[in-house]
Amino acid sequence: MTVKNRDGSAVDGKVRRRDPDRSRQAILDAAEQVFAREGYDGASMAAIGKAAGVSGTLPGYFFGDKATLYAAVIDRLFEERNRALEELGRAATAVLKEEDGLRRGLEVLVGGYLRFLLARPTFVQLMARDALEMTRSGRATEPRHSAAYESSVRGFLAALSPPPGPGVEPDQLLISIVALCFFPLEHDATMLAGMGYRAWTPAFVGKRTEHVVDILLRVLTTTPVR
User: Fold this and answer.
1) Which InterPro entries match (predicted)?
2) Nearest Cα to 32, choosing from 12, 59, 13?
3) End-to-end CA distance of the chain
4) Nearest 10 degrees: CA dihedral of 16, 21, 24, 30?
5) The pTM is what?
6) Domain 13-64 falls under CATH 1.10.10.60
7) CATH class held by domain 77-221
């Protein structure tokens, strides 16, 4: 497998051998792909080194062991996710006073999250594998939710006027948004394929954004019957 830089350009093997920083970056890029494709248990340091175009021992030189390398891959993905999502709350709140502001704000929150997932398919693959393999392998787990996105959702709800009714719980709303966005992409090759859809396309993401926003509008504007 040819590993590329994040900008899509090919990585020169000779440059990697002379440049420790680029070697480390190439190993992280390769590890992200290999872990997403093979899972934690199926991936090996030698395979990651080969995919990165370096020796099979170099990943161990930089990261020590597979668990540490995996943690570095996950940490990098989480940092990217937080950078992508932390501004959504402010952007969504900023449009609330405009015409049809509630819908437009929800489109920012939902569409922004879906576009991040669309741009980072390995994030979806790794999180799906992580959920299955962590409990089975007994590896230590850490919180996997995005505090940045949680803050965005909570900030948006706090800015609504009139505020949503007491039946709207921010935590439950956050879980619903993530589930409604994440599930179709995670199951693109199974349920969605069986229905004739291709989830990993801008067209599907656009329709999914519209549908999820319609659901959330009903939740936020309807008084629940208890």
Assistant:
1) Homeodomain-like_sf (IPR009057), HTH-type_TetR-like_transc_reg (IPR050109), HTH_TetR (IPR001647), Tet_transcr_reg_TetR-rel_C_sf (IPR036271)
2) 59
3) 56
4) -60
5) 0.83
6) yes
7) mainly alpha
